[in-house]
Write a structure and sequence with these properties.
By secondary structure, this protein is α+β, with helices and mostly antiparallel strands. It has a single domain (about 1-130), classed as Nuclear Transport Factor 2, Chain: A, CATH 3.10.450.50. It is about 35% helix and about 45% strand. The chain contains four helices and six strands. It has a six-stranded mixed beta sheet. A hairpin with a 2-residue loop joins strand 5 and strand 6.
C-alpha cells in the first residue's frame, strides 16, 4: 500500500499547484491533523479539512499574492511519506519567500491523516516582516 500512499501525497502537491483546493481537501481524512511550526502564518495544529482550508490555506492567501510548495524529493516510508522541497512566494507587501521545507505525511485507509510541516522559520519571519 505504500506506493498508493506516495501516489496520494504526490497528487496533493499536484492538485495544490493547479489550484484545485477541493481535490486537496478530498485527499484528507475528516480528522486530519495538519501541524505547522511556529513563525509561519498558520502555526499550531489544525484538525479537519475545513480548518486546513480556512486557517492554513486562507491565512496564506491573505498574506501572499503568489505562493507555491514545490516537492523536490519524495520518500516512501510505509504509512509515512516524507517530502523535501521548497516554499516560494511573494507577500502582499512585496517580500519574497524562497525557503527549504519538509513535510512528513501519515496515510491510512487511502487518506492523509497527518501532515507535519517543517519550515525555515527565519525565512518566514523575513518574508512576513516579523
Amino acid at each position: 500500500m505504500s506506493a498508493g500512499n506516495v501516489a496520494l501525497v504526490r497528487g496533493i502537491y499536484h492538485d495544490f499547484a493547479r489550484g484545485d483546493v477541493p481535490a486537496v481537501l478530498a485527499a484528507l481524512d475528516p480528522e486530519v491533523q495538519w501541524v505547522e511550526n511556529a513563525f509561519t502564518v498558520h502555526h499550531v495544529t489544525h484538525v479537519g479539512p475545513g480548518a486546513v482550508a480556512s486557517q492554513v490555506f486562507g491565512a496564506v492567501m491573505s498574506r501572499f499574492d503568489d505562493f507555491a510548495v514545490v516537492p523536490e524529493s519524495i520518500y516512501d516510508a510505509g504509512e509515512h511519506v516524507v517530502v523535501e522541497g521548497r516554499v516560494t512566494g511573494t507577500t502582499k507587501d512585496g517580500r519574497a519567500l524562497d525557503a527549504p521545507a519538509a513535510w512528513v505525511w501519515t496515510v491510512r485507509g487511502g487518506k492523509a491523516v497527518r501532515n507535519m510541516n517543517y519550515h525555515d522559520t527565519s525565512a518566514w519571519q523575513q518574508a512576513l516582516g516579523s
